[in-house]
């Protein structure tokens, strides 16, 4: 199952361009270690543990798309293995395989597994901690509680939101008679979860400007949780539209999978209402999202994005697999050919429904068409030559951070304070008028500008340059200007 998850999720891993958050990862881990520590004192403290991990990883394997995304791919594959074991402990091996299959085909899982961010690692941490909790229910051991605390420490260090998984597990301990007697050990293990939560929470409270762009929780939340949280890779809904715009077919996958899963989940809850599975998976599925939404409403903040709660996905897979596994069991016990055919057809249909999203995520612009960073890099490489210069706005600087090799050998006359000096993810840049004297030192200028905008192009023309050749991408235009 782990090998299948690795192959299925790894196909086309290299095809999507780095997008904004991945460019931030590249920018952070390319700098020297003291500079990385200085960065975290200013921005992205919540991602500090992940950046430290990737700092060491990239020193061994480099900065390519495959190298940076491989830890996430391995994490999803390991999570699939552990979910099989988790399912085996609670029901059967076939149930575990079915739950792991549901987990792997979900679009949000595929998004996390091919993304150079920490979300796939938090998903793995959630499954590992839950596996230990189930194991403790069967055979209590102090060493296991130490392991549970250690996994919590690592997982919460990667994402503050994972402290809510501990809260969900605490509800499970209270509800389950076999675990209830271990409440003292559960309480003692909380230190492993709470210490990194406090550290990350305090650091993040000083950098809340970084999430100011997230719109407030509003009427679109039910749709975002029901559809985007598990079955799409969008950020949120704005003015009735999913942001970023899905690639063709992704919405069809989203609606089809959501319909199937949300019919299966309540059915599974009803079928197993007296079983430990529901006491384990239902708090895991509901409590973190409920806590984030209620917290946002009470504080007036904006703390919910679907990808922040990626660690909830295995709970959805476990509950949705229950009625299908029950149907398959009936089919194996009774010679009802119709049930066997229906079960097989449902499995094939589920895979087919997920394919449009699966394929869409593996296109070059499958992350966000507004982040066409690889297109910019390839265009600069094609249009520019050593000794030329490039000009870009601060909004386009992440393309430089994501693919710096494409800009090697080119002058950078608009550069102000570098990202390292500034302790930010991107460089400070001046406008063309301020940099005019430095720009005039070059006869050829490569301009990177947002498509549909012409302010920078007009400014270059006022300096005596004319447009010679242009490349236009989904959101950016790269133009070679020559001096008259």
Give the neighbour order of strands across the main sheet: 3-4-6-5
What portion of residues is helical?
55-70%
Structural class: alpha+beta
Alpha-carbon distance between the termini? 63 Å
Domain count: 2
Along the chain, the helix and strand elements come as HHHHHHHHHHHHHEEHHHHHEHHHEHEE
Q: How does the SSE layout of this entry go?
A:
Elements lengths: L1 H9 L9 H11 L2 H8 L7 H14 L3 H26 L2 H13 L1 H7 L5 H20 L3 H17 L4 H13 L1 H4 L2 H23 L15 H11 L4 E3 L2 E3 L6 H22 L4 H24 L13 H21 L3 H25 L11 H11 L5 E4 L4 H6 L16 H4 L13 H4 L4 E7 L4 H8 L2 E8 L3 E8 L1
Helix pairs in contact: 1-5, 2-4, 3-4, 5-6, 5-8, 6-16, 8-9, 9-12, 10-12, 10-15, 13-14, 14-16, 14-17, 15-16, 16-17
List keywords for this structure.
alpha+beta; 2 domains; 484 residues; two-stranded antiparallel ribbon; 4-stranded mixed β-sheet; Aminopeptidase
Write a structural description.
With about 475 residues, this protein is α+β, with helices and mostly antiparallel strands. The protein folds into two domains: about 1-360, no CATH class; about 375-484, 3-Layer(aba) Sandwich (Aminopeptidase), CATH 3.40.630. It has 22 helices and six strands. The chain has a four-stranded mixed β-sheet, sandwiched between helices. Strands 1-2 form a two-stranded antiparallel sheet. The chain is elongated, with a radius of gyration of 25 Å.
